[in-house]
Amino acid sequence: MLAVMILALPLPAPAYAIAPSTDERASPYTGNGDGAEASQPAINRELELFRGSTISLSQAMAIAEALHAGSTTADVSFDGASDLPVYRVKILHNDRIWQHAVDAATGRIVGGAAALPLTELDADDRNNLAALRAVRHRLPEAVRVAEHAASGKAISGGLIRERGRLNFAIVVISGSELKEVILEPPGRRPAK
After folding, report:
1. Under a CB-based contact definition with an 8 Å cutoff, are residues 161 and 139 in contact?
2. Which of 3, 8, 58, 105 is the most buried (most CB within 10 A)?
3. Cα 42–43–47 angle (5° rounding)?
4. 42 vs 38, 47, 82, 158, CA distance in Å?
5. What's the CA gap between 87 and 90, in Å, rounded?
């Protein structure tokens, strides 16, 4: 069972990196990745687009994982800032991080796939992804637990390092509130 901690967020879903390597939290909303906070109208527009999406975050993860047999999602977030609302899904497969955009209305893959070899990541990120491979639970399971615990619909999820431990961080929209759910994986998988 995953340990759960729920925090109320004053701003929308974090755009988590694959594996933040510091013990500091990411800004609750990083917008275009430059650290600047988005304006409230832009935030409201993105949340409204998310609420109107046909495809769920869990479905987007399953769609991206189906492209690479045996892959696992490391990070996923809704992106309504572009012309076409999509889920940005980063999956780990064969020592690469694959990035896919899944249309939030149709579930189709849009644009091309981008792959980054793990060797191009820094040591902290590689260690975090190795830890992801070793835990019993996966991000899709953490999303289900978070949605149930927060009584809502997940808009983003990924890994976060907190106090030296790797956790799943899921942001859930529950009514008009955003809640960050931190889930501590129960431990390593038994060796085969």
Report:
1. no
2. 58
3. 115
4. 6, 9, 11, 23
5. 10
